[in-house]
Amino acid sequence: MTQPIATPVAESQALYLDPAIRDWVLIPIMIVMVLVGVLRDQVTILLGGNSFKKPSLKAIRETKALQRGTILRLYGNNIPPVSFHARKTFISSAFERGTYLKNPATANQSVNPMTDPQGMEMMMEGMKKNMAMIVPQTIIMAWVNFFFSGFVLIKLPFPLTLRFKSMLQRGVETSDMDVTWVSSLSWYFLNLFGLRSIFTLLLGEDNAADGMRDMQSMAAMGAAATPGQPQDFNKLFLAERENLELTPHEWELENVEIRLLVKYGKRDPSEAAFPRKSIVDESATIQDSKGKARRKGGKRD
To answer: Among candidates 237, 24, 298, which has minimal Cα distance to 151?
Structure first.
């Protein structure tokens, strides 16, 4: 009777770990990660990273004016043509004159973030947060890599593909081990990105210990061409003004009573065919007729 050949996967399934690895490697790494995250959050608060600074009234007005133009451009079909064109003319002229700018004197000047106090403050806040993240994580990774290099800690209870092998078995140079086994260095990275719920439970929603949020913020800063560069609202206002000028208007409620009667069968659809005429054209026609009547009356006198 032939004996079954033991495959590498079957051998890996029969791998037994020393309980001391759980007590002296697995749990200590997780506890150290949690404690460092809590310490990092407190250090960030002491450095002023989470302090909320109320913007000035002019800065709020500058932002809300831009939002007002965007709302008018997107949802202007819900108001009559006269109201839309009146708002469009008012906002376009205000954007062109720079009425809503926080500092109209520097409208056409490029702001240097190195000389702008607000820009320098934003850059310093970003540097503080990055240092509070990079320094402790670098120390912990060096500690794990030095003392626990090559340790296999746990086995995941679900199967994975070979694409996860390089991520879960860092520091273990073997090609025959099953993908579900996790090395010590990979356990560090899993804790770095997987302790968000624990930090939320201990520190609240807005905490500075979330490693995933820090990675996303660093990626956003790397993608930005000029990090810390303040927004040029004058260019944004002029661009929004051009968008408003090119935005057509078609009132959604024009002849709505006829469409409602047609919808419920109170009127024949063939009788509901009518040319769509804007109220702006009608008001212009009425004003022209009044002007002609006045001119005729003056000639008769």
So the answer is: 24
What is the rounded CA–CA span in Å between residue 6 and residue 8? 7
Q: Are the CB atoms for 36 and 198 separated by under 8 Å? A: no
Q: What is the pLDDT of residues 206-225, one digit of tens each?
A: 777 776 666 665 555 554 44
| 8 Å CB contact between 30 and 191 | yes
Report d(CA 73, CA 249) in Å as an integer: 9
Which residue shows structure tokens 């800065």? 59
CB 132 within 8 A of CB 43: yes
| Across 109-138, average pLDDT | 73
**Are the beta carbons of 179 and 154 closer than 8 angstroms?**
no
- 171 — alpha (psi -120 to 50), left (phi > 0) or beta? left
Residue 181 parent element (H or E) = strand 181-183
Q: State whether residue 179 is helix, strand or coil.
A: coil
State the Cα–Cα distance between residues 201 and 250, nearest whole angstrom.
51
Predicted pLDDT at 26: 93
Query: Does an H or E element contain 70, and which?
Result: helix 57-75
If we measure between CA atoms, which residue out of 194, 153, 185, 143 comes closest to residue 25? 153
Mind giving me the DSSP string for 119-138?
Answer: HHHHHHHHHHHHHHHHHHHH
| 152 phi/psi in degrees, rounded to 5 | -105, 120
Which pair of structure tokens corresponds to residue 136?
A: 């402790």
Residue 128: how many CA atoms within 13 Å on its side-chain side? 19
Task: Kindly report the pTM of this predicted structure.
Answer: 0.54
pLDDT > 50? residue 282: no
Whether 187 contacts 153, CB under 8 Å: yes
The pLDDT score that the predictor gives to residue 280 is: 45
pLDDT band at 52 (very low <50, low <70, confident <90, very high): low
- Nearest-Å Rg of the Cα atoms of the chain is 34
Average predicted confidence (pLDDT) for the chain: 77
